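Notebook, student rotation project (T.W.).
Task set for the rotation: take a protein with a known small-molecule partner, predict the structure of the complex, and write up what can be learned from the model alone. Partner molecule chosen: nicotinamide-adenine-dinucleotide. Sequence and SMILES entered below by T.W., checked by me.
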Amino acid sequence: MPSSLADQCILVTGAATGIGRACVEALAGRGARVWAGYQTGQEHLMDELIRSVAAQGGIVRGLEVDVADAASVKAMFARMEKDGPLHGLVNNAGVILEKPFLQTGEEDWQRVMSVDLDGVYRCCRLALHGMSARGGGSIVNVASDLGFLGREDYVAYCAAKAGVIGLTRALAREFAPLIRINGVAPGPIETAMVSPAHMSAEWMAREVAIPAARLGQPAEVAAAVCFLLSSEASFFTGQILGPNGGSWMGG
Ligand SMILES: NC(=O)c1ccc[n+]([C@@H]2O[C@H](COP(=O)([O-])OP(=O)(O)OC[C@H]3O[C@@H](n4cnc5c(N)ncnc54)[C@H](O)[C@@H]3O)[C@@H](O)[C@H]2O)c1
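Predicted structure of the complex:
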């Protein structure tokens, strides 16, 4: 049976690495035509991704974007719209900050918010203009289990991701029934963000102290994203799925 994502035009932000890259591969593998948002300096990663997806018969086109910059996001949507309607959006771009709260200054706070929360707002707003005019579409926002759990020394990140969860639920109500808006709140996933290169052995041990007793893989998050975007999830809206190895079991 052909995938309901076949020929759908879907934008993934933060697409050059980690979970975003896995989403691009999974969506293209299901026949979607993927726009992949990448940052300046990631051209080589994007070229390699486009080549490897093309070798499997998939279609990916790269777009440079800084989601912290409203003009850059606007330019990206203008470029995509020339090419036809956007059916799906995966707001995945994100940054993390480990800092005690009393050392988290205005600049730190704004930097995290501008990418992790404002970036989602900007992309949702422009995507929803087109989707509501057309009367259909599906959005998945990448939050984090830390948006539910909270964690010391990660206040800005936790606040931004909790914001993404609230934004997702409110938008789901506002744009129902024609547009479905869901989220995923991954637990610790093996990417550059959560790796021995960036974290102490104590932190890594804490990351895997979850029922699954291991880090998740980006493809395990991408599978949830594909499901939520697809027509198989036609009765899902305002939901936050948790590919998290059991780190968070609440609603
Ligand atoms: N790895 C985890 O354990 C984990 C857990 C929960 C949630 N997440 C979330 O998953 C998403 C992807 O993270 P990842 O783990 O793949 O790490 P990652 O660092 O590989 O991916 C983040 C991506 O966002 C992009 N990005 C950062 N700032 C940007 C900006 N201003 N404009 C455009 N793109 C920007 C980066 O270039 C990068 O490609 C993030 O939103 C992250 O918060 C990750």
